[in-house]
Amino acid sequence: MKLFSTTLVLFFAISLVAQDKVKISYESPEGRERIINELNNVKILEIISNDKEALQKKFALQIVRYQEGKPDTVFTNGTNCDIVKIPVVMASGDSALYIHEPCKSLTYTTKKEDFKITLAGKLQDSTFKMSINYPHGSSTIVLDAQPGFVLQNPFSDDKRNIKTNTPTPAALYFGGYKQGNSTFYCLAKTAKSEEMYQKFQVEDYYVFYLTIKD
Fold first, then answer.
1. Predicted local distance difference test score (pLDDT) of residue 111
2. Cα–Cα dist 6/1, whole Å
3. Within the chain, what is the greatest distance between any pair of CA atoms?
4. Cα–Cα distances in angstroms (integers) from residue 191 to residues 67, 70, 135, in the given order
């Protein structure tokens, strides 16, 4: 009986650890679409999850700009998910409640379709006008940028298990590591996103942190 109890406790412990991570994957344009986007200075990256453990969780983003290794948050969502109820007087004289759920669009609510975050932007002069699209909402932001900046997955593969309730680098927007007349982008996948200045002297770049919240 003691052995059974120990085994049961161990099973639940393993289950809890397994539920502490959510699978995500990445998609980028390919072929002709990629070429057309490049010619028009358009960058697109999609972060996708169809993991059942992600259901009813919120996918919050934070964009942090690093200049010479110093962080500065330039965008964030999902910090306050309190539901707001506003009394409204109708034309008929009746009263009603307007209910605003600020994190509704960030929440994975149905298993019937993938939960997809599309990051897309266009470089114009020295600015990157960007749209952050969720299944049921979007935000826009303008980032400072330079020619040669790319929007990419910071990992070495296109699928990843990330911890819930933990800010995790999910995308990079940066100009690569320059050496002589060459520029290297894949080296960023070999270092922590916060350490690219110390390791590769990348002086200006952006990290997109994803937090999958309960």
1. 80
2. 9
3. 72
4. 16, 16, 31
Q: Residue 75 burial (CB < 10 Å; 0-12/13-18/19+)?
A: middle
Which sequence spans correspond to the domains of the chain? 23-213
Closest of 158, 138, 156, 137 to residue 49, by C-alpha: 158
Distances (CA, A) of 33 to 74, 140, 163, 186: 29, 23, 33, 22
| Burial class of residue 10 in the structure, from the number of CB atoms within 10 Å of its CB (0-12 exposed, 13-18 middle, 19+ buried) | exposed
Confidence of residue 160 (pLDDT cuts 50, 70, 90): very high
Average of pLDDT values for 93-115? 86
**What are the structure tokens assigned to 195, written together?**
């350490």
Residue 107 CA: distances (Å) to CA of 10, 172, 199: 31, 23, 36
Residue 18: what pLDDT? 44
Alpha-carbon span 111 to 42, nearest angstrom: 30
Is residue 67 helix, strand or coil? Answer: strand
If residue 134 lies in a helix (H) or strand (E), which one and from where to where?
A: strand 127-134
User: How many whole angstroms from its chain centre is CA 48?
Assistant: 10
173 and 153 in contact (C-beta within 8 Å)? no
| Whole-angstrom distance, CA of residue 74 vs CA of residue 72 | 6
